[in-house]
Amino acid sequence: MNRGFLGYDASFMLDVVVCALILLVPLLVYSIWLVKYRHKYGKHKVAQLLMGLLLLTAVGLFEIDMQLHGGWKNIINKDPAAPRMSTAELADVSQILRIHLIFAISTPILWIWTTYEALRRFPDPIKPGPYSKRHKTLAWLSTIDLVLTSITGLIFYYYAFIA
Length: 163
Known about the structure:
The protein is an all-alpha fold. It has one domain (12-162). It is built from five helices and no strands. The chain has helices at residues 12-36, 41-69, 72-76, 87-121, 132-162. Helix 1 runs antiparallel to helix 2, helix 2 (41-69) runs antiparallel to helix 4 (87-121) and helix 4 (87-121) runs antiparallel to helix 5.
């Protein structure tokens, strides 16, 4: 199996996902800044749609990669004759992964819901309206969820491939 490009013994797609997680948070902050302080609703919409596409593409390719490698445990322990982690260590990393998956599963659901509702309820051209308050609530939930997805994903990556 191939090494990732970050220099650790992860797969290429795991490294892509890690980079996407790192990149998405500042892009999200920029998108929020655009709408909150600059009132650039159209640019905020484009930024959100591009980030959503980036996230879904990265996750989709990552899932394909997981299937090709037979799962994350096979990526960690590429050589069964000389495993990098013991069963106990894999169990610890598995606990971290379970926490990460709570956020990793809820994030796209929240983001798609928030985006769908915004596309449906905001006029074109976009301007604040009766739906704005609910959108803001959903958007902040999505933002918090994405940040927690990123943090827990990076923690998983650290313990699985760096520590």
